[in-house]
Fold this protein.
Amino acid sequence: MANFRASCRDPTGRNPPNVSSSGSGGVCMMRNTWRDEQHPSFINFISSFLNDFIFNCGGLSVAFVFVTNWDCNNYLSTYSRAQKLKEQFANLYVVVTLPTREQNDSFVRSYFKLGMKLGRPTFVPVQDLEMGFEKIVKIAHARGVCKRQDVASKLRAERKRSVQGMDVFLRVMTSIPGIDNHDANSLNQAIGSIEAIAKASKDCILKNTDLSSDKAEMITRFFRDPKFYLSPKIDRWEKKEEGR
């Protein structure tokens, strides 16, 4: 990946775009050699469709607009761009560098004057460039950690449900006379759920498991003849087994 860059925005700002993107934003990957062969105006045209930064941490993409020079007399473009990009990115942050009191006051007045909604997107005012980039890295990392913790929590919950479901499966299957845990696990791996086992034929059970013919017969009768497991036959069968 050494020959690729995630953005082609001109950091010097010497070639400002003369077009406005309509609700656009994203990542553009290109070879450095191809980029260097193109006219600067074309590269700048492409850059007008990009975010400043996109971090992917823990499987979560976090987009950032980094305003490094707040213009007290021309701030509408910043808000317009943020409004467009928030529709495309669920996790968008706008980091604004405000080194002077005048710039800070301008930002606060403009934010409320334009009726911006808190958190849509989230604006992060900072005092200098270094603090701004540090905030970007910390936010991306924190969101990634939260994402991983959420995934881990869901996996633990899913595992718990799976274990509980298997416990229920074993209790149901081992309630069938003659069926032990080994038989139940064999049926689960080869045929599947209780519903699938209930629909399986004797031949299907014999073909896909190591159960004996008598056990396969017992399972099919258990599920297909309600009177079978309600009748005294089970009690007689159990007593017969205990006497062996």
User: Anything to note?
Assistant: Residues 169 and 193 are 8 Å apart (CA to CA). The two ends are 71 Å apart (CA to CA).
